[in-house]
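Technical annex, item 7. During the second reporting period the consortium partners agreed on a shared format for inverse folding records so that results from different sites could be compared directly. Each record opens with the tokenized structure and is followed by the designed sequence. A conforming record, contributed by the partner at site C, is shown below for reference.
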């Protein structure tokens, strides 16, 4: 306050009319990212792959509109654009539902999805403020094999956007398990030569136990849940009302946008 009075006195002394400086916001107050199928930053937050600072703020990949990079042009997140890294993929069918988790909402212009620089889908929100979670069903246009989807959340009243890259294995049956295990089948010995060992040498319960059964089970972090799944947490039962992959801090009691207490 003392500085403002001195500044006004100086301006008056030199014959300059006092004025108010208005700083335009350089970035949106919104934040968010794709939690399912897990985007690269979601996998970083889950600890599924070694990452730098992005593991602490997967929702903050924000840059000017019109970019085509996974890192939004931010050097501190440049690893997100490194396609040579062993990014986990999610097996999906020809149509995918992308689920966004918004930690801070903002008026939205459009949501866009690209593969190989070609836009495959766009959703216009007309500058409305979205909910805490947003889902889009996107047709991949008959593409198969490994595909990298660039998803862009264009903010409605600023020049900024949020960027996500999602690595998919198209044609894998629609599983959301990010860690395909082709070697587990090769560990089974031929049943024609050693019949007794076929049942004892296939220890694969750990792969199925990573997915919570619908209708029961304790809530766990770093786990994909579907709409309708039920879990127990702190002695209470909760129902999933929005498909997502959990993170630490997203306990059912703390995320009413994702879980309904029964």
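Designed sequence (site C submission):
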């Amino acid at each position: 306050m003392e500085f403002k009075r001195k500044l006004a006195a100086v301006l008056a002394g030199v014959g300059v009319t006092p004025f108010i400086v208005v700083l335009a916001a350089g970035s949106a107050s919104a934040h968010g990212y794709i939690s399912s199928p897990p985007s690269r930053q979601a996998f970083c937050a889950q600890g599924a792959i070694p990452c730098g600072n992005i593991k602490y703020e997967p929702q903050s990949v924000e840059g000017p509109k019109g970019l085509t990079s996974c890192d939004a042009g931010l050097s501190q997140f440049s690893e997100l654009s490194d396609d040579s890294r062993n990014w986990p993929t999610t097996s999906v069918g020809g149509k995918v539902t992308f689920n966004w988790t918004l930690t801070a909402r903002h008026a939205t212009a459009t949501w866009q999805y690209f593969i190989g620089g070609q836009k495959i889908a766009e959703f216009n929100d007309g500058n409305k403020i979205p909910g805490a979670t947003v889902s889009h069903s996107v047709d991949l246009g008959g593409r198969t094999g490994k595909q990298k989807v660039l998803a862009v959340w264009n903010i409605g009243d600023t020049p900024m956007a949020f960027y996500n890259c999602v690595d998919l294995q198209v044609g894998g049956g629609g599983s959301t398990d990010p860690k395909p295990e082709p070697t587990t089948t090769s560990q089974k010995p031929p049943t024609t030569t050693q019949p007794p060992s076929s049942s004892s040498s296939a220890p694969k319960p750990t792969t199925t136990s990573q997915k919570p059964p619908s209708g029961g089970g304790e809530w766990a972090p770093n786990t994909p849940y579907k709409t309708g799944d039920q879990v127990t947490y702190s002695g209470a039962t909760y129902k999933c009302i929005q498909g997502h992959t959990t993170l630490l801090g997203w306990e059912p009691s703390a995320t009413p946008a994702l879980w309904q207490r029964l």
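The chain is about 10% helix and 35% strand. The two ends are 53 Å apart (CA to CA). All partners now use this format for quarterly exchanges.
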